[in-house]
Every structure is written in structure tokens, then in C-alpha cells.
Write a structure and sequence with these properties.
Largest sheet of chain B: 7 strands, mixed
Number of helices of chain B: 0
Strand content of chain B: over 45%
Shape of chain B: globular
Number of helices of chain A: 0
Radius of gyration of chain B: 14 Å
Structural class of chain B: mainly beta
Number of strands of chain B: 11
Oligomer: heterodimer
Distance between the termini of chain A: 36 Å
Radius of gyration of chain A: 13 Å
Largest sheet of chain A: 6 strands, mixed
Distance between the termini of chain B: 40 Å
Strand content of chain A: over 45%
Chain lengths: ~110, ~120
């Protein structure tokens, strides 16, 4: 089955730039989507189809992809960005898969 | 606007079958390009995709749980139902349903854009 691998935890100083990565074979063929989840809340879509932001998502969030790796970049991280971030994509069987999540700490 | 809400038992016993209902508004599951998925999250752990049903009744299941899952839709009631058999304490989790936008082109692949609030299901005797 397909797998997506994320670093368990990342930290960033307030106002600095942070990149969260996601690796998996499915990303060679399919775009990654990114979700933000704060404690006790449902996930929220922040990036879809590699680098598209839903309405209401700040433009400090951006996405990119190269080979089997997708990245979520937060440029000028804010305290409100502290959360868990999950990547997701489909695979060749049209199944969906999520990464293990990255806990972002804003220092 | 699109909303989804999960409902079902909060407590089930081991070996029982879990039935969860996702009731939604703001879209129709008979519209081309639309789907509804189920995702769960054990306490303190990661999201895990379970199942997906498309507007054309095509269905997909997590390979690791496929033998235990069934997903169905009732378009007239705007509901999607997930059943999971032979529940075990490791299945304790918050279960979410989510709206999926399906697209398959050079610039677009499917994604979950709206999520329900989730419902916590505990498996215990």
C-alpha cells in the first residue's frame, strides 16, 4: 500500500520561514494536499493540488513538489500557525493516503 | 455552504459492528465530481483514511481495513453510512466524514475540502 512519510516535529522562530516535507512514491504521479489541525478541532485544508490555497487561507502558506517529495512552506510563521500538519494524496488505485503528521511549534 | 455532521454510538463493545452516519448539506452526492470519505484519528495519533464513495457509486476502501468496511450512500437523504465490523479497542478514535472534490487532469487531483466536526467512538467492554 502507499505511504507518505513526514517528520514528526518541526520548530520555527516567530516570523521565520519553515518547510514541512512529505515523501512518498504516489507524489511522483499525484499532487499533495495539506491540512492543518489544531487541538480538539477537525482538519482544515490549507493547500490543495500542490500549490492552491482555499479561500481564507493566508498567502504565507504555499506548496511545492519535486520528485517524490511535497513541501508546505509557511513564510513568516505566526503563533496561530502552531498545529499539526498532514499531507495527503491519492494513489494509483484511487485510494487516499495520509502522512503521519508533523507537529509544528512556533517559538 | 457545505456542512457535514457525523452521528452514531459513542461506545461500542468489542466484536460489535459500528454504524456511523454522515449527514450533509450544501451539495448533492449525485453531482458529478463529488465524493464523501471517512477518516479516523485515534487519540493522539495521525489521520487514517478509511473509505470513499463517489457520485457514481464507485467505492474505495483502505486496503488494511477493506474486509471490515462497507460504505453506502442515500442520495435522497443526503447521507453516507459507514459500517465497520468486529470492533476492537484499537478502533477507538474520532471518526470524521469529509466532502471530496474529484478531479483527474494534469492540474487537478482529488482532495477533501470540507470536514465534519468528528465523533469520538470508544470501544470497550
Amino acid at each position: 500500500s502507499s505511504e507518505l512519510t513526514q517528520d514528526p516535529a518541526v520548530s520555527v522562530a516567530l516570523g521565520q520561514t519553515v518547510r514541512i516535507t512529505c515523501q512518498g512514491d504516489s507524489l511522483r504521479s499525484y499532487y499533495a494536499n495539506w491540512y492543518q489541525q489544531k487541538p480538539g478541532q477537525a482538519p482544515v485544508l490549507v493547500i490543495y493540488n500542490k500549490n492552491n490555497r482555499p479561500s481564507g487561507i493566508p498567502d504565507r502558506f504555499s506548496g511545492s513538489s519535486s520528485g517524490n517529495t511535497a513541501s508546505l512552506t509557511i513564510t513568516g510563521a505566526q503563533a496561530v500557525d502552531e498545529a499539526d500538519y498532514y499531507c495527503n494524496s491519492r494513489d494509483s488505485s484511487a485510494n487516499m493516503v495520509f502522512g503521519g503528521g508533523t507537529k509544528l511549534t512556533v517559538l | 455552504q457545505i456542512t457535514l455532521k457525523e452521528s452514531g454510538p459513542t461506545l461500542v463493545k468489542p466484536t460489535q459492528t459500528l454504524t456511523l452516519t454522515c449527514t450533509f448539506s450544501g451539495f448533492s452526492l449525485s453531482t458529478s465530481g463529488v465524493g464523501v470519505g471517512w477518516i479516523r484519528q485515534p487519540p493522539g495519533k495521525a489521520l487514517e483514511w478509511l473509505a470513499l464513495i463517489y457520485w457514481d457509486d464507485d467505492k474505495r476502501y483502505s486496503p488494511s481495513l477493506k474486509s471490515r468496511l462497507t460504505i453506502t450512500k442515500d442520495t435522497s437523504k443526503n447521507q453516507v453510512v459507514l459500517t465497520m465490523t468486529n470492533m476492537d479497542p484499537v478502533d477507538t478514535a474520532t471518526y470524521y466524514c469529509a466532502h471530496l472534490l474529484y478531479c483527474s487532469s494534469a492540474n487537478c487531483h482529488q482532495y477533501f475540502d470540507y470536514w465534519g466536526q468528528g465523533t469520538l467512538v470508544t470501544v470497550s467492554s
